[in-house]
Design goal:
Length: about 210
């Protein structure tokens, strides 16, 4: 199992394309530059199976419709943010003077969902609200990696001043879900460089004293 990171859009959001030996692929958070994402998929002869969203902020959904229309694949999102796709106030784009939306998701996750199997891909679903109410992290045990969206960053945590944000809840999510993963787990965030669970446990200033 391998992945590619494409940093897209004006706020430098990380889109991830995970793929296996059969060139099947899962796309996480196609945030912008849909044509560039499609070009990367096609130049590597990948076959997308689904799009997973860690959350529905505008910088994570801007390329969804373009990619989905090209490949006709299902879109997964948590129930608490299903209506954010079409709501510019909730998804934050209105706050930044934009109007970014995406069509309705075909698959809705809930707090009761623990696993997600798509083809040969098996994700552990970690419900990690705080940055936004429906934030989800996807743990790919076989690749020793977690796609944390905007919950946890290298040396930082997600902002909580946007609609539905809650810092106390975010810190609980990080400590009770993400920091319980093996320390060598690679953390692939929605912005910035990759890190590991162990590195964040040792040095992230936002996590001390909680």
């Amino acid at each position: 199992m391998q992945w590619k990171k494409l940093t897209v859009g004006p706020v430098q959001e990380n889109t991830y394309i995970i793929y296996n030996r059969e060139n099947e692929a899962i796309i996480i958070d196609p945030g912008s530059e849909g044509k560039r994402i499609i070009q990367n998929i096609e130049s590597n002869q990948l076959k997308p199976l689904a799009i997973l969203l860690t959350h529905a902020h505008f910088d994570h959904i801007g390329g969804v419709d373009e990619v989905r229309e090209r490949y006709d694949v299902p879109l997964y999102i948590h129930k608490r943010e299903a209506d954010w796709l079409g709501n510019t106030k909730k998804n934050g784009s209105l706050y930044f003077g934009q109007s970014i939306t995406a069509k309705q998701a075909s698959h809705i996750l809930t707090d009761n969902d623990k696993m997600l199997k798509i083809g040969s891909f098996s994700f552990v679903i970690l419900i990690t609200p705080g940055h936004s109410p429906g934030s989800v992290s996807y743990y790919l045990k076989g690749a020793n990696a977690v796609f944390s969206g905007d919950a946890l960053f290298a040396g930082s945590i997600g902002r909580t001043d946007l609609f539905g944000g809650n810092q106390k809840l975010l810190l609980q999510s990080i400590h009770q879900k993400l920091l319980l993963l093996p320390e060598e787990t690679t953390v692939l965030s929605g912005h910035g460089p990759e890190t590991t669970i162990g590195m964040e446990m040792d040095s992230n200033p936002f996590l001390s004293g909680f």
